[in-house]
Write a structure and sequence with these properties.
Layout: H1 5-10, H2 37-48, H3 54-60, H4 64-75, H5 83-94, H6 103-115
Helix pairs in contact: 4-5
């Protein structure tokens, strides 16, 4: 049997559904002293990629006790600090260094980092 080109053009063709792309829309949780800062800041970086004011969002999502420590370390001296400087200061305050397992040694290492 011979098919004509007109019949091929006019017949119905199979339609395939388009895949649905799931883009996660989530809100970032607040940072507390009990949380792992390194993991939290990694998730915050993914969340803040779409934001215009990363610094404001970062300061908003920090718990009050953490914010008070941050003010003592940097914000009282320089109120126009950048996002990266805030992130580095928070990492010095709350980022766990895997080489230090003893809390006293970790505290002393953080004090030395803040002094430098």
């Amino acid at each position: 049997m011979i098919y004509s080109p007109i019949q091929w053009l006019t017949r119905t063709k199979p339609h395939y559904p388009l895949p649905v792309i799931n883009i996660p829309s989530y809100t970032q949780t607040r940072f507390t002293e009990e949380k792992n800062f390194n993991q939290w800041i990694k998730h915050f970086g993914g969340y803040a990629i779409r934001l215009n004011d990363k610094t404001g969002a970062l300061l908003t999502l920090i718990e009050d006790e953490c914010s008070a420590k941050l003010e003592q370390c940097i914000l009282n001296y320089n109120p126009h600090v950048s996002y990266d400087e805030i992130k580095d200061t928070l990492r010095k305050l709350y980022g766990k260094d895997n080489q230090y397992q003893d809390p006293l040694i970790e505290f002393a290492a953080r004090k030395q980092q803040l002094a430098n």
